[in-house]
Amino acid sequence: MIDKEVHDAGEAVSGIENGATIMIGGFGPPGQPVALIEALLNRGVSDLVVINNNAGAGGDAISRLFGAGRVRKVICSFPKAIGSTVFDELFLAGKIELELVPQGNLAERIRAAGAGIGGFFTKTGYGTELAADKEVRLIDGEHYVFETPLHADFALIRASRADRWGNLVYRKTARNFGPVMAAAAKVTIAEVDHVVALGELDPEIIVTPGIYVDRFISTGYAPTNPKVTS
Amino acid sequence: MMRLSRHQIAARVAKDIPDGAYVNLGIGVPTLVADYLPEDREIILHTENGMLGMGGAALPGQEDADLTNAGKVYVTEEIGASYFHHADSFAMMRGGHIDFCVMGAYQVSARGDLANWRTNSTTSIPGVGGAMDLAAGAKHVYVVMDLFSKTGESKLVQNCSYPLTGAECVERIYTDVAVFDVIPAGVRILEIFDDLDAGQLSTLVGFTLIDATTSATVRN
């Protein structure tokens, strides 16, 4: 029998060691697997490479990971954060490495890794400093830049519901990076709001099939009640 | 001098978005465009974090933690809305499916080069987000900006001094002073709001602009 649910966040992140490359889902708070990030923080590992669209905001779990000095390098599109200077201070002090990637390249490089694609040519970034030194090819009269896949050792993602096989559905804009990250990491760990019986999720609407998910925890989180701080 | 307010610029942009368009609005003044889209047009808003059919800002108490726009503001969904993951969302942008994007800018050059992701400051944190994807992929790239910086320099320039977001991608520029089109022959003035003529505006901008204000008046 397959049952990918684990009942403890610490157990869910076991196996993550120093130096690991970790994709973390979320675009700001929606889709951010807060319980798993907390567990990673408690695990105490460092020298991490984090792949996330942002670099934390307003004291959230990701910014605490940076603040605790656990991250060696971040690969992201938009590290500028509202209400957090943690990343800024580390970056300006030269204490953290930044690989800045246009957002669509970030998503597509992750997707390419999950799909076994060795790279792709894109118009994004052509003629800019973010494409400097990259291979350029003229295709049908337009310039395209070569981009390589982005793999990870672990992906930490958040979804709305899971069944014991690890089939996932998401809620609204919290879907964001979850589906592509789930496929791009050697080990994918999901945090879901609720677990439902196998068969309860309509096969037509499953977004991430369980083949991409190694294990998950269920938090019982009620997503319709945001903590409005501003 | 007569200058349009941020809201007046947004309203001016909104007038030019046609019925049936798929539109991505950037953060800041571009977001305000949504408030002025004509009621009799069905215009579908795309938000890069993964949604088509985005509605207005959520009312206090009605916020949904899983529903934000690209600026991480709580928004609502229109009837007919859809959600998708980030690679699909950017495929819409990069694959040429978004009809119009409206972005802010630090500078736009006479060739339509766009600079809006970083200045040359060594103490600022660089962040690019989806700007380069929109510049490369949207069918029509519209810019809204004040024509002059706080220190009085024209932001419409012969050559950008700030790092580029995209080369030769901007089609139209809406400012507080005038509306411009970038065409192969140069920059064409469509409309002037201020009490200036085309010659005076060229002097302020620092290079020769093509005057098409008369035809613009007829067209509107």
Give the strand line-up of the largest sheet of chain B: 4-3-2-1-5-8-10-11-12-13
The helix/strand class of chain A is alpha/beta
Radius of gyration of chain B: 18 Å
Assess the beta-strand content of chain A as a share of residues: 25-35%
CATH architectural category of chain A: 3-Layer(aba) Sandwich
Distance between the termini of chain B: 23 Å
Chain pair with largest interface? A-B, 56 and 44 residues
Describe this structure in words.
The complex is a heterodimer of chains A (230) and B (220). Chain A is an alpha/beta fold. Chain A has a single domain (9-118, 151-218), classed as Glutaconate Coenzyme A-transferase (3-Layer(aba) Sandwich). Chain A is 20% helix and 26% strand. Chain A is built from six helices and eleven strands. Chain A has helices at residues 9-12, 34-43, 61-67, 86-92, 103-114, 178-184, and strands spanning 21-24, 48-51, 71-76, 97-100, 120-122, 136-139, 142-147, 152-162, 168-169, 185-195, 215-218. In chain A, the strands form two sheets. In chain A, strands 1, 2, 3, 4, 8, 9, 10 and 11 form an eight-stranded mixed beta sheet that branches. A three-stranded antiparallel beta sheet of chain A has the order 5-7-6. In chain A, α3 links the parallel β2 (48-51) and β3 (71-76). In chain A, α2 runs parallel beside α3 and α5 crosses α6 (178-184). Chain A is globular. Chain A starts with 8 loop residues before the first helix and ends in a 12-residue tail after the last strand. The mean pLDDT of chain A is 94. The two termini of chain B are 23 Å apart. In chain B, the strands form two sheets. Chain B has a ten-stranded mixed beta sheet with strand order 4-3-2-1-5-8-10-11-12-13. In chain B, strands 7-6-9 form a three-stranded mixed beta sheet, with no helix packed on it. In chain B, 20% of the residues lie in helices and 28% in strands. Chain B has one domain: 3-Layer(aba) Sandwich (Glutaconate Coenzyme A-transferase). Chain B has 220 residues and is α/β, with parallel strands linked by helices. Residues 216-220 of chain B have low confidence and may be disordered. At the A-B interface, α4, α5 and α6 of A face α3 and α4 of B.
